[in-house]
Amino acid sequence: GGGEETDPDLATDPPGTIAVIGVNDGVPFGAADILDFSGFDTDTLTAAGVRIFWPGSDASTDLEPEYVVVSDDSLTAFVTLQEANAVAVVDLATPAISAVVPLGTKDFSSLLMDASNRDDEINLQNWDVEGIYMPDAIDTYTVGGATYLVTANEGDSRDYDCYSEEARMKDLLDEDEVGYTSALTDEVTAAAGDNEQLGSLNSTTAMPTTDPVDQLYMWGARSFTIWNTSGEVVYDPGSEFEEYIAANYPDYFNAQADDEAGTAADMVASMADEVDARSDDKGSEPEAVAVGKIGERYYAFVGLERQGGIMVYDVTDPSDGQFEDYVNLALDEHAAGGDFTGPGTTDVSPEGVVFVSVADSPTGKPLVIVANELSGTTTIYEVTGSEIEAELAVANVTLPATGQGTDMALVAAVMLGIGAVALMVGRRRV
User: Fold this and answer.
1) pTM over 0.85, yes/no
2) pLDDT digits over 362-409, tens only?
3) Range 103-108, long-range pairs (CB < 8 A, 24+ positions)
């Protein structure tokens, strides 16, 4: 949906589709199968909790695929439908979209969260707010014969010239703004009217918000989540991301980089002036996730788009994830007054994370590749159990030509030489 139209009825909203392309030895074969959502009943999906809310739309046009991952047995694909807060399940043998699974919401009433950017301080409290998971990236892994999904719960809204669902919680209940009626408790209503409490927190005027408002909702869940394939939560670290950053990176808490600051190093430095700037929105904004097996253990690597850096969790037991480390070389460099010449020290805004197993690695060691949107950098981490924070793997190498037919193993090895650091597992920070 969207476009430049100011009338949602005139906006262009093509059907959401998923293309299934056969590949043999790296070469596509046959015609692509284009799958859509025309076979799904809109009322049934919305009753189950799938967000279908664009004015006048139905499932076929409102569901918009975001990110795809394929199961270990290559029989099933799982596709995030971010704005709809759901995951599509694709039977690759048929191929056909077999299900759309709603993800529900996350209760923050017993968790800690900073909900305001207006108080200029770290203020972690329990709030009677539900986070709409709305994952961006998704990965999958198999343990004990069961398949699990792992999502980075970024959150996203629809905000166009022709239609916007965005509203501050204060504006939801302001008769001169959205003007919904409050069916909340007096305490929550008062908090929603105060910009230093819940008033500035971004919310939605659309599903699942109702009028009268009996529950407040926000974008994203400020976490990653492990799910079973039925859409039931197996593990979520709650508010650990926010609590850890508040305790260990208070000078950069819920910060964001100024993308007009200049160089990538300037953008990193700008985060010190943007503390608390994202508390009213999605916090650290988990954007990317990859799961990999190292030895006999599984690890999740979660990229934080606004805060920067990578959260590392041991997810060998899907129901009991364990925090391992948070790696943010850029903020560490700024805090130490460094010169931003080391690998990873100018990385801003992780957008994609890829795990490379030992079997596929050009170095024979597990790697994590991180692409950073604002800085335009790609850093390759070597995963180790070392106490070394970071070290240059290879020095003084030259990039070869890239493109079709290039030896990508060589490219990866050279990239490792100019932008590689060690990333630890098997050691937990508290």
Assistant:
1) yes
2) 989 999 999 999 999 999 999 987 432 333 332 222 233 333 333 323
3) 103/49, 103/133, 103/134, 103/135, 103/151, 103/227, 103/231, 104/49, 104/133, 104/231, 105/130, 105/131, 105/132, 105/133, 105/208, 105/217, 106/130, 106/131, 106/133, 106/153, 106/221, 106/223, 106/236, 108/239
